[in-house]
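Input.
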Amino acid sequence: MFVWRDEATEAQKDDVREAFRSLNGAVPSLRSLAVGDNINHKSTTGYDFIVDGHFTELGDFEACRKHPAYNEAMALAIDATKYEWTARITHRMASG
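Output.
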């Protein structure tokens, strides 16, 4: 979850969104990934941009973190967001 830097341009934001979207199909360990804007924006704890990735196993996320496309997306995000407001949440979900 990210908060944009005040000076981040719309082009930077679009580049970040597209870089994360492009991970679908490019990173073998990633089952699916979605991005969203203005998550709970009316709250003081809201985020401007969220990335939600789904993996089969927790170790698959570690493989994703090592993938060059993920690192490129993160580098773009680092330049465009407030690092002190970034949150990473990892949780397990059980089906049915």
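The chain has a mean pLDDT of 87.
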